Amino acid sequence: MNRYFVFLSYDGTAYHGWQVQPNGNSVQEELQRALSILLRQPIEVVGAGRTDAGVHAAMMVAHFDTDLTPDTAQLTYRLNRILPRDIAVQKTVPVNQDMHARFSALSRTYHYYIHTHKSPFVRNFSCPIHYQLDFDLMNEAGRILTTYDDFAAFCKSHTDVKTTICHVTEARWEQVGEGRYRFVITANRFLRNMVRAVVGTLIDVGRGRISLDEFHSVIEGKSRTAAGESMPACALFLQNIEYN
Prior knowledge:
Blueprint: E1 2-10, H1 27-39, E2 46-47, E3 56-66, H2 72-82, E4 87-95, E5 105-115, E6 127-128, H3 135-145, E7 168-177, E8 180-187, H4 194-206, H5 212-221, E9 236-243
Parallel strand pairs: 3-9, 5-6
Antiparallel strand pairs: 1-3, 1-4, 2-3, 5-8, 5-9, 7-8
């Protein structure tokens, strides 16, 4: 059996997330359908993560197994011919059988975008903010995140996870244009809804709604109800995945 990694990107607007859903279309389902057609056998893919409904990916990685040895350049070309326009495959590469799209990943990076001026060009991929924010204070709070490892406070309620431990190595805001900012966060793993809840809480810090001491308390309290609101999905991108 041969294993292949597929590197792809997608606009998640029209999908109920990455994972196959019983009552809605997903990116995983579209990729499996396309591969099964081209390889003429049932193909199941395993993704590096599970983006929620409406979340985008500048880089997603998935693996699949087959007893065939396809021309990977041709497979990539043909995938892009039959996949929807909002899903694009960058490359398909053979890997060792012990490589796993999810478990072999060393880290993942997400970007969350906000804008403070009305713009018709970023509205589908950025969250509008209509109040002043203290980004220096928000970056101080971001550095605080890297000193903790239990992020239960930012995990979607009633989620079946074995652990809420994550190792965050980077959490910062940066300006990317006039009135446009993005939040960059890197960790070995993420909990469901974690990034959007973190962003909502950091914005509460930037608005002066909670202090840095209270931010510490939110994390240590491990209660989702104490953290900020979950921000809209449209502004969130899975940006990068690192492998050894």
